[in-house]
Amino acid sequence: MQIIFVPERGHALTVSLFSKALLVVVASSLLFVFSSNLNAQAVLEEMDWAYAISPIFPAEEDDGTLYSLPGSEGRFTLNEARNRFGPADWYPQDHLPMPSIVAIGREAAGIMACSLCHYPTGQGKPENASVVGLEPGYFKQQLQDMRDGLRGSANTAKANTAMMMAFAVNMTDEEIEQAAEYYGAMDWNQWIEVVETDTVPLTFRRGGLHIPLEGDAAGEEPIGRRIIEMPVDPEGTELLRNPRAGFRALVPIGAVAAGEAMATTGGDKSIACAICHGEQLQGLGQVPALRGRSPSYLARQLFDFQQGTRQGVWSPLMDAVVENLTGDDIINLTAYLGSLPAEF
Ligand code: HEC
Ligand code: HEC
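Structure tokens predicted for Cytochrome c domain-containing protein:
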């Protein structure tokens, strides 16, 4: 326990005593900052919402039924829709021709199709990542960091992040190049709606997603200090991987304004994001875009940086940004970033 000594007005201190006292104040507040960091940092428990670690459910049986989605000419069975080495491409008109690593992966090396989790469009699901519109240099650096064991999840129970690291290790340089060029050549589109609220639907977790309960089990509960990000079309997202159905992130009231204040000035704990991420947080050179992206994804990254499990070649630039963030700060920042429209 540190006690900061602040000389009171009218205290009978000589000038030299006063400067000694000042030294003590400075030294002890430095110590205070240092030792209280551990307390001021976010902790895994309060970040639970962002990871949504889920029990394993048995997969729905494929009874041969052919499914369709609005505006798609494709008809696929469940097994076709979720095929790890060539999932359904519902809307080929929505994206460029996919390189084979994106469309089917490489089964012999255990690399699943990138399109399975990030979708052919790269808009992706929040338990994974959005990868569309990332500058290819940044994209490649991330895969290199994963290969080098420099990027991993602060939550060791997050199985899909571990899978992602393994894919990066097994990918060839050429496959990395092709995936980076492919996703980098397309634009990020509006995908997430951020809504401030006091209450949220009762949800359960499946596959790293929060899914609203239905029927008799449906209900509401206070949001607390959480962000609950849910698919707009739960069945379409979960079963069929509908790449046109986005997400809604329910955030605590006041989070967006608090996040904006911290993001724009850095407050007394952080650094203004626009300095590196660009005026509109649209990304700048190799520094990635933040606007309109999934709050859960962004929150995991901030926590991973803070906990030191994401320590890639460029990550040190984020050190001073995240060092003193609490779980609440992370909620506010990512609610604000998610609320910025993709187009500006
Ligand atoms: C099983 C699902 C899955 C598959 C398949 C998958 N990824 Fe990922 N990807 C993830 C997860 C999970 C993350 C990291 C999310 C986290 O840790 O919060 C990620 C992150 C990324 C990132 C970092 C994005 C950023 O903004 O920093 C890139 C780049 C990426 N993946 C590329 C690929 C490529 C290329 C492929 C195809 C070879 C691929 N992924 C296949 C799940 C997947
Ligand atoms: C001094 C420069 C700098 C500042 C200031 C900065 N960032 Fe970053 N940020 C980076 C760099 C560089 C990366 C890429 C790190 C890497 O490759 O590991 C990054 C990555 C990120 C990521 C991960 C994105 C992804 O796609 O995985 C998030 C989230 C992020 N920053 C949030 C913020 C927020 C929020 C702020 C302001 C409060 C901020 N940053 C301020 C340099 C900065």
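The pocket of heme C (ligand 1) is lined by residues 101, 105, 111-112, 114, 116-118, 128-129, 131, 134, 139, 142-143, 153, 160-161, 163-164, 167, 171, 179, 288, 297, 300 (CB under 6 Å).
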